[in-house]
Design a protein that fits this description.
It is built from 5 helices and no strands. By secondary structure, the protein is an all-alpha fold. The longest helix has 26 residues. The radius of gyration is 22 Å and the shape is elongated.
Length: about 140
């Protein structure tokens, strides 16, 4: 009444060991994710440096670049060379974006127990949170 199945099950071929795609460990995946968040934070930091270059932003950019290079096996990150004239609301939005990126980096750094990256991300979060608060008279 029913015709027998003539092909192998899809489930056995998917679960077969020794596939043709590379496998990464959880730690490698977290390294890639953390490097991406820190590189994005570095890009926003470079934008802020172009607008209001302060020694603290210069130091932060150097620390972020060092962490990204460490996580990427010594490959230096691509740096932004933004020189546009930005107005105040845009600067506040950049600080808010940097705060969010630093928060994401902190979560991943804590997940992979990377103390140096976690401390750096927490310091950046604090800096950008302070930068978005209104100045008290």
């Amino acid at each position: 009444m029913y015709e027998p199945i003539r092909t192998k099950s899809v489930h056995t071929t998917v679960a077969a060991p020794g596939g043709d795609f590379p496998h990464r460990s959880r730690e490698e995946e977290l390294d890639i994710q953390l490097a991406g968040h820190l590189a994005a934070l570095l890009a926003v930091t470079d934008e802020l440096r172009a607008v209001a270059g302060t020694p603290e932003l210069d130091t932060a950019a150097a620390e972020l670049a060092a962490q990204v290079a460490r996580l990427r096996g010594g490959h230096a990150p691509v740096r932004s060379t933004v020189a546009d004239a930005l107005h105040e609301p845009h600067v506040i939005a950049l600080h808010q974006r940097a705060h969010a990126l630093a928060g994401r980096a902190l979560v991943v750094a804590a997940s992979r127990a990377d103390t140096a990256a976690a401390i750096l991300a927490a310091r950046r979060m604090e800096f950008h949170a302070d930068a978005t608060e209104p100045v008290a008279a």
